[in-house]
Amino acid sequence: MQGIHRHDPVPCPACGSIVDATTCVTDDAKPVPGDISICCACCATLAFTDDLTYRIFTEDEIQQLPTKSLTQLFAAKVVVLKHMKAMRAEKDGSP
Ligand SMILES: [Zn+2]
Q1: Which among 56, 60, 69, 85 is placed 20 to 30 Å from 34, CA to CA?
Q2: How close is the Cα of 27 to the center of ligand 1, in Å?
Q3: Can you give the pTM of this predicted structure?
Q4: How far is the CA of 70 from the centre of ligand 1 (A)?
Q5: Distance CA 30, CA 28 (A)
Q6: Which residues crowd ion ligand 1, with CB under 5 Å?
Q7: How far apart are CA 41 and CA 83, in angstroms?
Q8: How far apart are the CA of 43 and the centre of ligand 1, in A?
Q9: What are residue 18's DSSP bridge partners?
Q10: Are 54 and 46 in contact (CB under 8 A)?
């Protein structure tokens, strides 16, 4: 993961969790409209809107991604799911 870019707090359109930062998996770029993101609270696939809030990135859109982008998306989702599992274990006090 690269640098963390803070932004105004906005709700995830899938779960409502407040999101106030993003990290680019490929370089240290700040998000631009159309970039794909993943909610670290619910693992929903999202896209940045023109005003850099989030919208749901649809299944149809996912299916149209080039293979390289799809591979990056799934690799990032694995990282997020591991993070979610670790956070849940920490919260529950389990190893
Ligand atoms: Zn979410």
Answers
A1: 85
A2: 23
A3: 0.85
A4: 19
A5: 7
A6: 12, 14-15, 17, 39, 41-42, 44
A7: 9
A8: 6
A9: 11
A10: yes
Tens-place pLDDT, residues 77-92? 999 999 899 988 988 8
The two three-digit tokens of residue 86, written as one number: 């670790």
List, in sequence order, the alpha helices (H) in 6-66. Answer: 59-63
Cα(13) to centroid(ligand 1), Å: 7
Instruction: Assign 12 a pLDDT band (cuts: 50, 70, 90).
Output: very high
94 Cα: distance to centroid of ligand 1 (angstroms):
23
Cα 49 to ligand 1 centroid, rounded to whole Å: 16
Which residues face 36 on adjacent strands? 47
